[in-house]
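Hi all, long-time lurker, first post. I run a small reading group and we've been trying to get comfortable going from sequence to structure in the token notation. Rather than ask abstract questions, I figured I'd post a concrete chain and ask someone more experienced to write out its structure so we can walk through it together at our next meeting. Sequence below, copied exactly:
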Amino acid sequence: MAAEDQIRADGVRGRGDEALAAWATTPLTRLIADRRSVRNGFETRGIPDAELREIVRAGLAAPSSKNARPWRFHVVSDRSLLSEFADAATTAEGADSYVPRDPATGLPRPDWPSTVRESAEVLRQVPVGIFVENRGAFSNGRRMLASVSAQRLLGSLVGYTFEILGIGAAIENLWLAANALGIQAAYLGDILIAEGLICDRLGIDLDLVGVLGLGYSNAHASPQRIAYDVDDGETVIWHGLPRSS
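-- Answer (accepted) --
Happy to help. Here is the structure in token form:
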């Protein structure tokens, strides 16, 4: 089987018979278009070591500003440890109101619901969680940023943004590689409510960014939720000569 055909076949393995997005014309863009967060239906079988290593290598291949590679992946396949982290999240103070906060007021944003309990349930089901640490190549971590003056913070946030952009690229690489191997995934950011315990147990020095839960799932992939309209001025602005249709 040709390499492109292999990507085409593996990328949708276990995803049901849902048609891929019509705009995707290559095996890679089809894989991107078909990516979904899968949070249920996980099977009990583990992920073979060879496939897990391939996924992690894909994450390590991500681009980053100055090639700083600000990430460190903590690959956890100990189900008792994953359950411990899930329990810590659900029993943490404020679990039912843990949402992004408005920096102007410091208050939780009312338009976003807490999903701590849903994330914890995924963590209980999956055989592997890749916990992502930001090593703070430019910022030295959130605590350092919180300790500096407002004048210094403004410039330092640029470097922190570069770190998170690189980490985001790494997470996407991990995710797409997993999907190409027939393994489903969900990113669980609000597990950070238990950051203290998780960092202590895993030996994380700086910031926990979240965890990518991985596993084989028999759940049917949800349909595409939004239309990717490249002419929507809210999300895409074209600068330059008029484009041909």
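A couple of things your group might point at:
The radius of gyration is 19 Å.
Residues 42-215 form a domain with the NADH Oxidase fold (CATH 3.40.109.10).
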